[in-house]
Amino acid sequence: MNEKLLWLLAFVALYWAYCVYLGIRGARMARTASDYFLAGRSLPVWVFVLAATAISFSGWTFLGHPAMIYRDGFPYAYISFFTIVIPLTGIVFLKRQWMLGKRFGYVTPGEMLSDYYQCDRIRFLTVVVAVLFTVPFMGVQLGAAGYLFNVLSDGLISTTAGTLLLAVAVFLYVVYGGMRAVAYADSIQCILLAVGVILTGAIAIYAIGGVDNLLTSLERMGNSEFGLWGTTKGAGGGDYNSYLAVPGMMQPVSGVSETADTGGPWTGMMILTFLMAMLGVQASPAFSMWSFGNNTPKPFAPQQVWVSGLILGGILFIVSTAQGMSTHLLGATPSLAGSGVPIDWILTPEISDIPDTLVPYLLTMVQDQMPWLVAFLGVCALAGMQSAGAAYMSTAGAMLTRDVYKHRLQPQAGHSIQKFVARVCVLLILLAALVVALMNKDTLVLLGGMAVAFGLQMWPALLGICWFKWFSARGISAGLIAGLLGVFFTDNLGVSLLHAIGLDFWGRWPLTIHSGGWGIALNLIVCVTLSLRSQDEAEDSHKASYHRFLKEHATLTPNKRRLIPLAWGLTLIWVFFAIGPGVVVGNDIFGAPNAGRDGWAFGIPSIWAWQILFWLLGVALLWFLAYFMEMSTVPEQDIEALSDDIGDPGLDEAN
Fold first, then answer.
1. Global pTM?
2. 3-state secondary structure 390-430
3. Which of 475, 434, 540 is nearest to 159 (CA)?
4. How far apart are CA 96 and CA 111, in angstroms?
């Protein structure tokens, strides 16, 4: 057994032992069902800040993101703006959901939404979304972990064995400790994830000989036509290398493919709708429960603005982007490798065909010199993978228990039986995720890509309860169904199904619009149309009481209320130019991609400078909304809790 494998096994054993310890500790503290499901509504501020960040970004940030930047270049790097748009969702919804959860004792979003809309159908659909989100998302994390184990162990641990190892470890601490164990584990995993991304980026930069060599290679890219997508052929402002320019606002194609897209799929509309799908992360039912798990909204703003927006955003826009583009100098692009660049390590050429192998190969580059570092970074990657999966498993198990078993089958279920049923549900979810993880790799990626798009479909329901009281139960439920179908039939699995029955209407992501964009558009059209046609006076009166409560406890001073149009106007402007059709301006505003370092205003490609500029403006926008406009601050007026748990049968059944 080689030294690297010994280090890997030692680090993984210590790390998982700590996670299991947290599970046992959490089980001892979970006296009631709501203790188990919501950590007693008493998560410490620092724990939520770190845990929510880890849940939002997961192992994909570590493994998949730099690999896609390598494959598709700076147009894809716009996806790093998920560090801004994901917390933007939290700013819109988390504080108001917390207020309602505190007031009425909601444990699950299904309880909250069905109570507000007076409709059990919405409760059921919320559980469906939670499962559709959790199973494929967890499956992707398990499958990626198995592959990582296989690479780092030089094939001694098979992909299947690695997948099963992670599944067992996650199951043990989730099933015993509930949300409290997941939260404390995720807080450590957030730190490991950030450190891992920084160190792997540093390895790549060191391997190519430094930042100056990277910029020289980018200069050469601007004057060449190599790459998967060729040049933009005039789309987006000029005939530029597709690695350095967005290929226009939108392309009139039936679906995204490697042959149909001029300059690649990452048009302005594709970037916008892909990031819209990412809005589904903190709109997912799981995050509603995480908002309930706090005794104050105090951690919301720092997590959204400083940890997610500023710190993680800076890591991705600078470190991950540099890491992804450095790969071209390490043998992945032969025309750049070896052109006077002092390269100590050369990657295998196969990563040009399989980008997901990028980060594992970067780790193996230093295995002979620093086997302990490779093992440590392997643990960082595993931490990122299990952070989000564990959180979604825990909350999905709770929703199945409360919204299906307790609500429909056994309304008088006590604390012990609720915890037992939740643990069984977690096991069933994990088994389903394992089935997904062990599918072929292409299917795994497709299922994972749809998960966040399914979560996005919760936006209208949350807008209704938090902001727009005229959304009706009929409109919300019909819109949600339409949105889920819209996602499915504009992504590869649905398109393949249509093709199998002879209906070839479009390909995946038609008009370079992501399936999440098609789904939410259909969702809103149906929701708004039916809501306008199904207004009910009794229903409106019931919903108005919730909005009066929110207004009383989240009102702004008159001076700040006058700034509301400005706040949303600035948000729309930022969206248009940072992640929407206006991104094409960034292609050459600071110098054409082929102008070279002397012609670039900041010494880096214009598109990179544009991204960094709007990342900083995005952080400022988050601060303005979260702090100044008080959308994520603690309410000045105390909230009286009518119940700690709307279904609490009493402490006498706790054990």
1. 0.94
2. HHHHHHHHHHHHHHHHHHHHCCCCCHHHHHHHHHHHHHHHH
3. 434
4. 15
